Amino acid sequence: MVYFGNILMECEVNINCYLPHLTSTALIAPPPASVGGFDNTIKIFLETCISEIHATFNSAPHSEGGTDSIAPEKVLKILLSHEFNYQSKGRTKHLHADLLKLLGRVIASGKKIPIFFLFRGGYRVAVGGEPLAHVFAPDITELMLIYQVARLERRIREVYPPGVSFSIVINNGVAAFTNGIAYACTNDYVRRLRQLIGRLGAQETVWVLNQSELGSFEDRMHGIDIVPKPEISPVDHGVVQRFLGRTCTVEEACLKIATYEKAEMVWGTQVRAIVAADGGIFCRQVAHPACLSFRPFPGGAIRVQNGTLAFRLGDAGPVPVFVTPLTWAREQPVVLPMHLALFDGVSAASEAATETARVPT
């Protein structure tokens, strides 16, 4: 049995991409008796994570002495550790030499280590509710990502006091061009995500690189030849429909997959140029031969746009797990309505985002 840590939330989500909104009410129904107090255990765990995030980002980095004598190998060892990267060292060995050179240059400059993390298109697939629905709101998933960044920041500061600059990369141009996901929805997600980062006091370390703020992606795709795939598997057909938010024919799915591949290629060229110009490290949620992976939550090894975060009770407390539409029936999560003050009013229109387009210079 998996307990689904669901922040009390109402999301008007359907195939027409309605905007979701959070509710601040704490008047929630009591959990099922079978839960046995696990709802409170999860809430304490999440509140502890929030406290640790605040403590990390509200403390000044240790800055005594220079950084020239710091060995880049120490930093790379942390980035490659199982806590943050699920690829084996053998599978990333071909990247190590270039990463050490890059880290050496950053350390010599005394600046924060720039890390760019390809996260999602500004939405995720809904689970356990209306089929083919989408969610456009930050929730526990984003909280656990920022918690992971806080853990990384603490570890890096131990060997390199300036720490890191962590960019959450949102490729909503790809989502719009491939799946027709409205910019109004994904840009509003970015606005909320920036509010969440600010409320956690992480804005000096964590920031959002939003694709739609870099100019027209549609113009970049103009003239790109897209040839539909000759065939796809039923599994891939289902994936396409979930990210479209509607049913489609196999023929359309073959075209969508080909479109996505070309769009990712064009976007990849653009974002890698941004990362290179900033002397940064590019990370993905999943294994890729050209870059490191970064776990989006403790133990994570999956694209979080595919579902939602849940919890199992481990020997040491709640353990995050991931539930997708394909695993929902098997896992049979119990929904635990939960009020966390951190999320109160995150979607309020009166709370303007404090950050606009931001690109390294």
SSE pattern: EEEHHHEEEHEHHEHHHEEEEHE
Radius of gyration: 21 Å
Distance between the termini: 48 Å
- The side-by-side strand order for the widest beta sheet comes to 8-7-4-9-10
Gross geometry? globular
Class from helix and strand fractions: alpha/beta
Low-confidence stretches: 3-31, 347-361
The oligomeric status of these chains comes to: single chain
Number of strands: 13
Roughly what percent helix? 25-40%
Give the percentage of residues in beta strands.
Answer: 15-25%
Mean pLDDT over the residues: 82
Number of helices: 10
- Summarize the main sheet: 5 strands, parallel
Word description of this protein:
The chain is of the alpha/beta class and 361 residues long. The protein has ten helices and 13 strands. The chain has helices at 38-57, 72-79, 89-109, 140-159, 172-179, 183-199, 217-221, 234-244, 250-277, 328-331, and strands at residues 3-7, 9-11, 20-22, 113-120, 124-125, 134-135, 164-170, 206-210, 281-284, 292-293, 308-314, 317-323, 334-338. It has a five-stranded parallel beta sheet, sandwiched between helices. A two-stranded parallel ribbon has the order 1-13. β5 and β6 form a beta hairpin. α1 (38-57) crosses α4 (140-159). It starts with a strand and ends in a 23-residue tail after the last strand. 40% of the residues are buried.
